[in-house]
Each structure stands twice: as structure tokens, then as C-alpha cells.
From TrEMBL:
GO molecular function, a single term: restriction endodeoxyribonuclease activity
TM ranges: 157-179
Protein name: Restriction endonuclease
Originating organism: Haladaptatus paucihalophilus DX253
Entries under InterPro entries matching the protein: DUF4352, Immunoprotect_excell_Ig-like, Restrct_endonuc-II-like, Restrct_endonuc_IV_Mrr, tRNA_endonuc-like_dom_sf, Type_IV_Methyl-Rstrct_Enzyme
All residue ranges annotated as the DUF4352 domain in the record: 220-308
Length: 332
């Protein structure tokens, strides 16, 4: 399906794919080439999107991109194509620390993150705008015809642009203006769990969220498949139950991606479970409530964890107020 994405839609698809991992993205067109500028938690990066599956990306083309990164001080660079890379390009990418993402790696990302619907949307030509924050950034890119480079490009530190997207956690961008912790719960096992209420300055909608949480080493939801879900080695699950109320008058869309968990300096997206879900996307009318649950997989030795809202709610101008409710049942 990735090969069926129109070339004109491919840069927006890449921006949306990285937006799913919490990067703020901005698509930039310069000299007939398409780039995606990235920003997250003080880190910046640049992706050159190379549509087409015909000729492999050559070493000369990659050398030009490396030169652009060096010229503008971009520390994290990646080239993304639905096609392939030549041997010269792979060698140069390894030397320069530029991540090379070909069609096979793109398919791996989509499979790992279960983002087939995103591919289908762009393959059908229905991709509107990248799933990223509105306040992205751009780089003053001026593409020269050729960029002279030394024979040996110094190896950079391991980049995070591609590594992060394959990680099981999905980082997200937290809305500004923290109002309070929304209560605290001490889980069995030592995690101190809190929740951050937020309010964009232009808030026009409001959600009141009662929540409770507990730490579990495995899950066995009544999903019909009798499966037992276990976290990766060194991690455990945090099960969060929420009662969400639309405190405004206008209808609001609600999706699990609107919530995340900050722990050990990383923002974690919810852990999807096959054949089981406690949070179906829905629309809440004014005054309407719904009860949902989410699962996060985080380091077992993490001292703290904080439930937060993501940029999705900020873009929808929604104030979110959390309050801990110890009477709320935490179960799947």
C-alpha cells in the first residue's frame, strides 16, 4: 500500500507518520525537493522525503543532503523513500550518521505501530494535513546544486529520528499551562502517579476527567481470545481508568491518542492490545460522559509517572481538568 501513495502525497504522509511519534512537523518545499522539519523536546531534525520507487537513492543525492544538514547544523537527519538506496548511499549514510528509511523499513514501522489506516488514507489521496502540532518550525533551507564534502564524513552520535519511531512508546507533545497535578496515587510496587491538568489560552471546550490507576504485571481482558498480555522485559503495565465528561456545550471528539504518560523523561503513548480495547473513539455531546481505560507500558523501576494530554486536544482548544477518584474501579 505504501507504494500506492501518490508522489505528491508522500511528504505529507511522512510528516503524519512522524507526527504519530510526537514530533512537531513542517513540510518544506525547496528547489523541487520536499523536506520535513522536526522538533520535539528541544531536539530538531530534518527528513528528506524522496518519493518514487524507480531508481535507488544514489550516493551523490545523499551527499547533497548530508551537506545541507552540515550547513545548517542539523544534528538529526533521515532520508525516507518508498524505494531503495544504492550501496554508495548506504555507506555514506553510515559514515555520516544519517538514517536511511527504505520501503521495507516503512512497512515495518506501519506494522509495528498498526498504522495501516494512515497508509490507506494517503493511498486514497485523502491525506489532509500531517498529524502534528500547528506550531511546527521550518529551516532556512537553500538547496545548492552541489555540495563539496570531504572523502570521509565524520561519524555522528547515534541519531534518534528513526530509532524513536520504531520504539514501542509513542512520544507526544504536551499542551502548555499546567494547572495542577489532579491528585496522586501510590501504586503497588512504588510508582507515584499524577495527572496534569492543562488549559490552552484560547480554550473553547472543556473535559473533566476523573481517574484512578494501578500497576499490573500482566493483563487478561475479556476479549474472547483468552490471551494474556505481558509487557517487555524490564517494564510493567500501568492500567488507567477514566470517567470523561464533556463539560462544555459543543460536541467533542475523544480518542485514546489524546492521552499519554510521561515517565523517566519519555512520553509514552497507550499500548494497543489486539482483540481488546477499553477506549473506542467517540463523540461526546455537551454534558455527556463515558468510562474508558488505557494501558501504558513503562520501566518497572521508574519512580514516577504522570498522565498528560496531547497536542490533539490543544489543537481542538480543549481545557482538560483531572481529578483523582480513588473510588473509581480500575479493571479491564
Amino acid at each position: 500500500m505504501i507504494r500506492h501513495i501518490p508522489e505528491s502525497e508522500f511528504p505529507e504522509f511522512v510528516a503524519a507518520l512522524w507526527g504519530k511519534q510526537g514530533w512537531q512537523t513542517t513540510v518544506t518545499e525547496k528547489s523541487g525537493k520536499s523536506f520535513v522539519a522536526l522538533q520535539r523536546d528541544g531536539a530538531e531534525g530534518l527528513i528528506w522525503t524522496k518519493p518514487g520507487t524507480g531508481n535507488a537513492v544514489s550516493g551523490q543525492e545523499l551527499q547533497q543532503f548530508v551537506g545541507i544538514c552540515k550547513k545548517f547544523g542539523v544534528n538529526e537527519g533521515a532520508v525516507v523513500t518508498p524505494g531503495t538506496f544504492s550501496e554508495d548511499a548506504e555507506k555514506l549514510g553510515s559514515q555520516a550518521g544519517v538514517q536511511l528509511v527504505d520501503g521495507e523499513k516503512l512497512r515495518t514501522i506501519v506494522e509495528a505501530r498498526e498504522l495501516h489506516d494512515l497508509v490507506e488514507r494517503f493511498a486514497d489521496g485523502g491525506g489532509d494535513e500531517p498529524d502534528s502540532d500547528e506550531d511546527g518550525f521550518s529551516l532556512p533551507i537553500s538547496i545548492p546544486e552541489s555540495v563539496p564534502l570531504p572523502d570521509e564524513v565524520p561519524r555522528k552520535a547515534v541519531t534518534v529520528v528513526f530509532v524513536a519511531i520504531l520504539a514501542i512508546v509513542a512520544a507526544t507533545v504536551v499542551a502548555p499551562m499546567i494547572l495542577g497535578t489532579g491528585g496522586t496515587v501510590q501504586t503497588n510496587g512504588g510508582w507515584n502517579v499524577t495527572a496534569n491538568s492543562t488549559a490552552p489560552t484560547d480554550a473553547t471546550g472543556a473535559l473533566d476527567v476523573r481517574w484512578n490507576a494501578k500497576r499490573v504485571s500482566k493483563l487478561n481482558p475479556e476479549s474472547g481470545d483468552d490471551g494474556v498480555y505481558k509487557p517487555d522485559d524490564g517494564e510493567e503495565f500501568l492500567l488507567v481508568s477514566m470517567n470523561v465528561t464533556n463539560a462544555g456545550s459543543d460536541s467533542l471528539g475523544l480518542r485514546p491518542q489524546a492521552f499519554a504518560l510521561r515517565s523517566n523523561g519519555t512520553l509514552h503513548g497507550h499500548q494497543p492490545l489486539k482483540n481488546a480495547t477499553g477506549f473506542q473513539p467517540s463523540v461526546l455531546d455537551g454534558g455527556e460522559s463515558t468510562s474508558v481505560w488505557l494501558v501504558f507500558s513503562i520501566d518497572a523501576d521508574a519512580p514516577n509517572a504522570t498522565i498528560v494530554t496531547t497536542g490533539r486536544l490543544r489543537r481542538d482548544h480543549v481545557r482538560t481538568e483531572f481529578s483523582h477518584d480513588e473510588t473509581l474501579t480500575v479493571e479491564t
